[in-house]
UniProtKB/TrEMBL annotation:
<dbReference type="InterPro" id="IPR025997">
    <property type="entry name" value="SBP_2_dom"/>
</dbReference>
<feature type="domain" description="Periplasmic binding protein">
    <location>
        <begin position="50"/>
        <end position="307"/>
    </location>
</feature>
<dbReference type="InterPro" id="IPR028082">
    <property type="entry name" value="Peripla_BP_I"/>
</dbReference>
<keyword id="KW-0732">Signal</keyword>
<dbReference type="InterPro" id="IPR050555">
    <property type="entry name" value="Bact_Solute-Bind_Prot2"/>
</dbReference>
<dbReference type="Pfam" id="PF13407">
    <property type="entry name" value="Peripla_BP_4"/>
</dbReference>
<protein>
    <submittedName>
        <fullName>D-xylose ABC transporter substrate-binding protein</fullName>
    </submittedName>
</protein>
<dbReference type="InterPro" id="IPR013456">
    <property type="entry name" value="XylF"/>
</dbReference>
Amino acid sequence: MSKYMTDLNLSFFLILLMVYVTACEQPNQAVVHKNTPLQSNSTSDSKIVIGFSMDTLEEERWIRDRDLFKAAVERLGAEVRVMAANGNDAMQIIQAETLINEGVDVLVVVPHNAEATAAIVHKAHLEGIKVISYDRLIKNADLDLYVSFDNEQVGELQAKAITQFVPKGRYVYIGGADTDNNAHLFRKGVYNVLQPLIAKGDITVVYDQWTKNWLPMNAYENMKNSLQANHYKIDAVIAANDATAESAIIALSESGLSGILPVAGQDAELAAVQRIVKGTQTMTVYKPINLLAETAAKLAVKMAKGEDVGADRFVNNGKIQVPSVLLSPIAVDQTNLDETIIKDGFHSWEDVYQGQLKE
Ligand code: BGC
C-alpha cells in the first residue's frame, strides 16, 4: 500500500514537473521562432502581437518597410509576425489565415492584389481581428484603417517635374501593376498634370501600359515596345517606380537615348539616386518610409489596445469610406537630394556619391 502510494506520488510529481517545464518553454519558443508561425496562440502571454502580411520582400523598399515596422512595433513593447507571399495571391491569403489562426491582435496587410485580399479582411473580422491596409489599399472590404502616402500626389510630382523639362512633346508612361490600387493612383496623378497640356495639344502620350506584377523585365519589354512603335521618337518617360525606371533606362541606353530624355521614377532607391547623380534619371519621389512604418506601428498597437486611432481622412475603397492617414511624398532631383534623402539618413552621402564614383 505504502509502496503503491509512493509510486503514485512519484508519477504525480513527474506529471507536475512536465507541465512546469512545458509552461516554461513556451515563451522561449515564441522568441526563438520569431517571424515563423507560433507554436502556441499568441494570447498565451500578454504581449500584443501584430501580424504583418506582406506582398513581397523581393524589392528594396519592402525590406526597409519590414525592418522599420518591426523595430517600431518592438519599441512600443509589442511583437510582430511577418509573412511575405512574394507576389502570390493565394499564398498571401493562406499566410494571412495562418496569422489569424495564431491569434494576432491586429493584422497589417500590404496587399499584392487589391481585390483578392478583401477575403483576408473578411476572415480576420470573423475572428474579431481588425485589419490595417499598409501603403496599398485593400478594395471592396470593411477595412478598419488605411495608412499610406498621398499616392495621387506622387504621380503629380513626377509629371510636374518632367513637364518643366519637356513642356511640349511625346510622352511614354510605364505604369505599375494593374492589380495594385497605388498604380492607378500614381497614373491618375500623372494625368491630373498632363491632361490640360494634352488638351492644348502640347503633349501627346504615345504609349501607356501597366507593368504586370511590377516586374522590371515587363517594364523593359514595355519600354522596348514603346520605342519601336514610335520609331524611337519620344521626348520623355514617366515610370511608376524606380525599378521600372531602371528597366526603361536600360532600354533607352540600348538605343543611345539614355541621359538624353528625362525619366521620372519613385521610391528613392539607392540605385535610382545614384542614377540621378549620374544624370541618367531625372527625378524620383521620396517617401519617408520610417514615418509610414512608425505611424502604422503606433496605430496598430493603439487599435490592439482598443484605443481610438484618430484618422482624419477617408478614402473610398469601393465599399466604405476607409479611415485613412496619408503622408506627404517629396520630389527629389540633383538639387535637393542632400537636404532630403541624405539629411534624413535614408541613404548615406558615401553610398550616393562614392558608390556612384566606384561604378
Ligand atoms: C508602392 C511603391 C512600390 C511598388 C512596387 C507600390 O504600391 O507604393 O513604392 O515601388 O508598389 O512594389
